[in-house]
Design brief:
Elements (H helix, E strand, L loop, with lengths): L1 E2 L4 H14 L3 E4 L3 H5 L7 E4 L2 H15 L3 E4 L4 H9 L4 E5 L10 E3 L9 H9 L16 H12 L21 H14 L17
Parallel strand pairs: 1-2, 1-4, 2-3, 4-5, 5-6
């Protein structure tokens, strides 16, 4: 059982590691459709906000009886949710005062310098490889046709921009996002992959 990250960007980076585990996944309800499109994952259990959502997930966890949990969220609440659901063998970073609930504690310093892609593989206990397959999204054919029709009407090249964030530091004015998009179109810059992740410590 995996507790997925809470934010869209982190979740996208975690998808290859989640797919590699083949495990069932607890994820915030608004992100559940994305995980549900990843081929090779188990059951997706949406976590609705509030006490009602917690109770529903706790009941589901207890009904299945998951023996182990992987915490890709660093929050105390992620560990607490799984422990309340009867998942006692937890693996995750020793953060947010939750170390006492973890069976396998991972020192955050051991992950310093890792790319997000590598970090989530380490948390899952899966060795990351540069040639790891990207997650395959099973997109509804009707939705795919509608999207392709919309894209065909737009000039090329295309740059996708998500000009909003829950983090104030990333919520730029719209004209700055537009400037970045225009520059990428002009220069055709490909994103660089980080190669600074240290080897995982024994037993981490």
């Amino acid at each position: 059982m995996v507790r997925a990250p809470n934010h869209l960007g982190d979740l996208v980076a975690a998808l290859p590691a989640i797919r590699a585990t083949g495990a069932d996944v607890v994820v915030r309800a608004w992100l559940a459709p994305l995980v549900g499109m990843v081929e090779g994952t188990g059951e997706v259990i949406p976590l609705e906000p509030g006490a009602r959502g917690w109770r529903a997930v706790v009941r589901r966890l207890r009904a299945v009886g998951y023996p182990r949990g992987i915490l890709m969220s660093p929050a105390f609440s992620a560990a607490l949710l799984f422990r309340l659901g009867g998942v006692h063998h937890l693996r995750g970073t020793d953060t947010d005062l939750r170390g006492g609930m973890l069976r396998q504690r991972i020192d955050p310093a051991a992950l310093s310098g890792c790319s997000r892609f590598e970090l989530y593989h380490r948390l899952a206990g899966v060795e990351p490889h540069r040639d790891s397959p990207a997650p395959l999204l099973g997109i509804d054919p009707t939705l795919r046709e509608r999207w392709n029709a919309r894209l065909s009407e737009l000039p090329r090249p295309l740059v996708a921009v998500a000009p909003a964030s829950h983090a104030p530091a990333r919520s730029w004015p719209a004209d700055r996002f537009a400037a970045v998009a225009a520059r990428r179109v002009e220069q055709s810059i490909a994103p660089a992959a980080s190669d600074r992740c240290p080897a995982a410590a024994p037993g981490s």
